[in-house]
Specification:
Length: about 130
């Protein structure tokens, strides 16, 4: 039996856009159209609603977990302030890139203002890091 091609699971803004496009479908059909399903050895498609709903919650930026990390120790939260590191680099951090839905390889143009740095995603919107 030939395998059906698997659709890439959508996340973040892409997931939210697709779900809005499919507003007239059932939640199971939406989950499947967004790639949240598997095909068993017998060719039966199974929708993974839990992964789909969790991805929607994440895409909306809703935090259901407590502020503590999974290991029981409190972690750092995004503060929207960064400092120049000893090597001269500015590290934005994964909390921000995840919130923005950025993926490895995404590219930006950098332009310097008098008291700001502007990052313009190639093929995206402007984002600014203002200096105080």
């Amino acid at each position: 039996m030939p395998k059906a091609p698997k659709i890439e699971t959508l996340e973040g803004e892409a997931l939210l856009r697709k779900v809005k496009e499919l507003e007239n479908l059932s939640k199971e059909e939406k989950a499947k159209a967004c790639g949240y399903y598997t095909v068993t050895k017998n060719g039966v498609e199974r929708v993974n609603m839990m992964k789909f709903l969790n991805a929607l919650i994440d895409a909306e930026g809703i935090q259901l977990d407590s502020k503590q990390g999974g290991n029981g120790r409190g972690g750092r939260s995004a503060s929207y302030r960064i400092s120049v590191q000893s090597n001269g680099n500015l590290l934005i951090g994964s909390a921000y890139t995840k919130q923005m839905g950025l993926k490895p390889g995404d590219e930006f143009e950098i332009s310097l203002g008098r008291k700001h740095i502007r990052l313009k995603q190639i093929g995206g919107d402007d984002m600014e890091l203002d200096e105080e």
